[in-house]
Amino acid sequence: MDDPTPAEVRKILNNLGYIDDRIHRLAQSGTTTRFLLDLRVDGGRLCLDGSAAGEQTDVEKCVAPRTGPITASGAE
Question: Which residues are 49's β-sheet partners?
């Protein structure tokens, strides 16, 4: 499989049920496409920090602010 583009990663995430409003910082760096998923619900702070390159996808949990723009800590 070729390295996935941001558009391909967005399509896969959409097919998994994640709406565009939950997908953030989708960008390609070299052969890797990175993304953040905003999973904050009812005051929660959960997010996922992910990367996709070829057949390999890595996702780690992260912590987001309770409100406001999505930023992540704890996954770097």
Answer: 36, 60
| Cα radius of gyration rounded to whole Å, the chain | 12
Task: Name the H helices within 1-76.
Answer: 6-15
Cα dihedral 39→57→26→67 (10° resolution): 20
Contact 63, 44 (CB under 8 A): no
Residue that is written with structure tokens 């949990």 in the block: 61
pLDDT in tens, 9-62: 999 999 999 999 999 999 999 999 999 999 999 999 999 999 999 999 999 999
Contact residues for 54 (Cβ-Cβ < 8 A; gap 6+) = 1, 2, 3, 4, 31
pTM: 0.87
